[in-house]
Amino acid sequence: MLVTGGAGYIGSHAARALADAGRRVVIYDNLSQGHRAAALGADLVVGDTHDVGLLRSVIESRGVTAVMHFAAWAAVGESVRDPAGYYANNVAGTLSVLRAMAERQVPTFIFSSTCAVFGEPVETPMGETHPARPVNAYGETKLAVERALPHYERAYGLRSICLRYFNAAGADPEGRLGEDHRPERHLIPLALDAVRGGAPLEIYGDDYPTPDGTCLRDYIHVSDLAAAHLLALRRLEADPRSAVYNLGIGRPFSVREVLESVRRVTGRAVPHSVAGRRDGDPSVLFAANARIREELGWVPRFVDLDDIVATAWRWLQAHPGKYGEEAV
Description:
Blueprint: E1 2-4, H1 9-20, E2 26-29, E3 43-46, H2 52-62, E4 66-69, H3 76-81, H4 83-103, E5 108-114, H5 137-156, E6 159-165, E7 167-169, H6 187-195, E8 201-204, E9 216-217, E10 219-221, H7 222-238, E11 243-247, E12 253-254, H8 255-266, E13 272-275, E14 284-285, H9 290-296, H10 305-318
Helix pairs in contact: 1-7, 2-4, 4-5, 6-8, 8-10
């Protein structure tokens, strides 16, 4: 099993879930955003997704029969400023992975996609048939890959499942892995850093048409995401029908609810200030997850916000320097 981007946040949790399930895992990561320590001693190949030759070599030498693809840039604001970089990394890099797979007849592909493919919500909760009209380059690049996959299936027999995440959060409940982006952009780790004496959190807008004026988002625990990837792999191995699934718990929480959860878990109020809205931030985003529940039998373990925050807080307390290394 090849896991590209397997030294990053979600990829490392998926790689560990695969290993825990008895799968032989090869992590392929250029370590530009991931961490060597997050590989937890697994077979790690340091390489770039654009290197088709190295990808072919790894597929051959390790006997790879399936790929989970997490290697991507994922910062919405950055994608607006640098669309060229996002298309080069997220689209061209993914096509290089698919090329190596097609050339070596690897038939199974699990793709890390995003709810950003939808753009502004027409309705909530958002199901798989919700219109896909991205409002930023990040969402466009993920949708471009989703749209390419049926063509690769027809031409090369490459079967795929796309998993559209909502807001990944939390850390491995056993304390082995956590979240360490540099710079950090996600709400929960930023709030936890603030209570540890880091920079005060900025709330972007408190005048939305929501009960407390702040945005509502669907927070899905990273271990539940990892479990969904394992279920998707098993489904494709048993039933080679390609599919797309939304991944969220189906319940939104506001920014202020997250801050209150952090206060309950840590016993400390989150230092914060209120800034203006960010462009392109919808007031409410959350998933309709009936399809993945019914077809894959996926059931999230973590549906209480305090439980999600608590796993992140425990990991951060045990790893005050996080992975203790700079992303290289």
